[in-house]
Amino acid sequence: MDDITALILDDHTAFRRGFARLDDARNEQELLAIWEALALHLDIHAEAEEAILYPHLVKHGDDGEDETADAIGDHNKIRDAIAEAKLHPVGSERWWAAVGTARRENSEHLAEEEDEALPDFRRHASTELRAELGQRWLTFYGEHKNGRDLPFRDKDPQRYVADHR
Ligand SMILES: [Fe+2]
Ligand SMILES: [Fe+2]
């Protein structure tokens, strides 16, 4: 049985490693290979959290509504930076600027999620729920392999909270 918070932390580690790999890439082909996989993973991860983690946190967290609105806003900034990077040739100045924004926004977001949202979730979620959501998380990744059927569109944070609380 996998705990959803452990699965989320595994993804966060993969993101940090992915951005570090970009530093080591020596040509555009390497950059493209690393970035495409990383960007897709970032986009799927945000959708998975919005489908599985935050609907629970917004209802049961001590500060669930604020944490959820913050997270959706952060996800939007990361999505926007990924979409911006797609508009520019890999390795160009504007591409690096967009990737740098994605990296910075992601680093800030991971810290908030790990230090605030996930601790709040752990305080209120039973072991059974954590395992059940972990199972749903794995199923979500299977059903949406390579981002299949996911729109990767920004969501209005306040509207998301109002729709899920
Ligand atoms: Fe996350
Ligand atoms: Fe997140």
Automatic annotation (TrEMBL):
<feature type="region of interest" description="Disordered">
    <location>
        <begin position="145"/>
        <end position="165"/>
    </location>
</feature>
<dbReference type="InterPro" id="IPR012312">
    <property type="entry name" value="Hemerythrin-like"/>
</dbReference>
<protein>
    <submittedName>
        <fullName>Cation-binding protein</fullName>
    </submittedName>
</protein>
<dbReference type="Pfam" id="PF01814">
    <property type="entry name" value="Hemerythrin"/>
</dbReference>
<feature type="domain" description="Hemerythrin-like">
    <location>
        <begin position="4"/>
        <end position="119"/>
    </location>
</feature>
